[in-house]
């Protein structure tokens, strides 16, 4: 019998050693089960030993759990705006969803008519969500969905009618009072046409930018507008100096292909079939410009006026100073889409002098000699915090999935807003040599 007891005591020591080792290794006793206990000693000893170790381990585990919980629960201040977090739905309160993101208090995902809001479905407790910390105002963590996944078409803003719709939707828009219209349709004054970027154009733009960067990357200045955010490169003629932009000889062929294909799209047909007789009556000083033409092509002097169709390639480019503050709020139509305050509310310059006077605001007009044909490309479901938008007057359109625009950049205040992400863009517009002329304000007559 003493021999037997010694055996049991021996097994107990080994078992406890194994327990301690496993505990240290895994940090939890969940891996321990009766199956893993030594098998060869009497059952009563096994049971007693097990209850003893269980008690000890339970206590240790409770301490560990408490310690872990206090470590995992982060303070509101420790979260960064724009930070991506995993969340678990706690409850759906109708106008908002309470989400556990490991913060001391629940974070709030609002329902609403803005990008990144919770949609209309019911969010069951326990559902995992990919969310972004959007703001920490008033000690409340407010969230947005991490990626853009809209149930609306971003050209006509109607509920999507199927996968074909996205690649075919063409829509004309009025972008605000006081802007002379480019054309009319059904008695409505319209300023622009918005449509898809054909798949083949997507590919051509990618190839063009890849080829272009082999030249542009070797420049001392990494952009044609080095003082502005992102990169912009011209393919065309520097009319004031009668020479071409670097890389133009190599790149103009591809630019002409993109221009040619875009001029064959339905959105151009819509514009070509439109009338603009009423424009002459209401804005007598305004002559709607033609589209940039196929002939004689990009970077070729048009003998008619000495001008040239230029192509501009943007990579994350914004018409704002490069050191512009990320705190400068987006223009009104983007702010509306994102459900945030606009530059008119937060920037003294935009509010009192207008966005065009503010060097931190992307909204501007250009001195062009034709209408603008512009396209912007971003992935189909970008991270919401990194989305790009094209602003025209009081409208803004996400570039997600690729979108093209026809408008007159002389009279429509416009610009790409893309504060934190990346996008690719291309614009075609005719420029003529700058001529000094007596400054005379155009006579404006509006009915
Ligand atoms: Zn649509
Ligand atoms: Zn401003
Ligand atoms: Zn502004
Ligand atoms: Zn512009």
Automatic annotation (TrEMBL):
Signal peptide range in chain numbering: 1-20
Keywords: Signal
Source organism: Symbiodinium pilosum
Protein name: S1 motif domain-containing protein
């Amino acid at each position: 019998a003493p021999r037997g007891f010694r055996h049991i005591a021996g097994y107990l020591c080994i078992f406890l050693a194994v327990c301690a080792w496993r505990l240290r290794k895994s940090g939890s006793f969940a891996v321990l089960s009766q199956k893993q206990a030594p098998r060869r000693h009497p059952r009563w000893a096994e049971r007693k030993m097990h209850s003893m170790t269980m008690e000890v381990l339970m206590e240790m585990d409770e301490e560990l759990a408490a310690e872990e919980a206090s470590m995992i629960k982060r303070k509101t201040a420790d979260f960064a705006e724009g930070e991506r977090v995993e969340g678990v739905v706690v409850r759906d309160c109708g106008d908002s969803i309470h989400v556990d993101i490991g913060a001391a208090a629940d974070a709030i995902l609002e329902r609403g008519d803005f990008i990144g809001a919770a949609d209309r479905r019911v969010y069951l407790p326990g559902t995992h969500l990919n969310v972004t910390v959007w703001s920490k105002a008033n000690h409340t963590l407010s969230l947005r969905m991490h990626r853009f996944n809209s149930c609306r078409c971003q050209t006509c803003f109607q509920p999507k009618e199927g996968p074909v719709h996205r690649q075919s939707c063409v829509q004309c828009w009025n972008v605000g009072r006081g802007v002379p219209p480019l054309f009319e349709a059904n008695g409505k004054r319209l300023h622009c046409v918005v449509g898809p970027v054909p798949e083949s154009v997507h590919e051509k733009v990618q190839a063009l930018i890849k080829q272009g960067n082999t030249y542009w990357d070797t420049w001392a200045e990494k952009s044609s507008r080095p003082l502005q955010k992102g990169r912009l490169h011209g393919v065309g003629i520097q009319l004031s100096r009668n020479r071409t932009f670097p890389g133009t000889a190599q790149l103009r062929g591809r630019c002409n292909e993109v221009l040619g294909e875009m001029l064959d799209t339905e959105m151009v047909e819509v514009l070509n079939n439109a009338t603009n007789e009423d424009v002459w009556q209401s804005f007598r000083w305004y002559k709607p410009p033609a589209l940039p033409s196929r002939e004689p092509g990009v970077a070729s002097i048009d003998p008619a006026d000495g001008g040239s169709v230029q192509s501009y390639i943007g990579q994350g480019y914004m018409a704002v100073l490069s050191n512009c503050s990320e705190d400068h709020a987006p223009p009104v139509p983007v702010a509306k889409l994102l459900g945030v305050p606009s530059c008119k509310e937060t920037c003294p310059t935009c509010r009192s002098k207008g966005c065009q006077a503010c060097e931190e605001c992307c909204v501007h007009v250009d001195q062009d000699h034709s209408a603008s044909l512009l396209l912007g490309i971003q992935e189909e479901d970008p991270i919401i915090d990194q989305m790009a938008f094209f602003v025209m007057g009081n409208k803004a359109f996400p570039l997600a999935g690729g979108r093209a625009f026809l408008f007159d950049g002389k009279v429509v205040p416009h610009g790409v807003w893309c504060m934190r992400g990346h996008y690719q863009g291309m614009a075609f517009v005719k420029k003529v040599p700058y001529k000094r002329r007596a400054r005379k304000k155009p006579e404006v007559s509006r009915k």
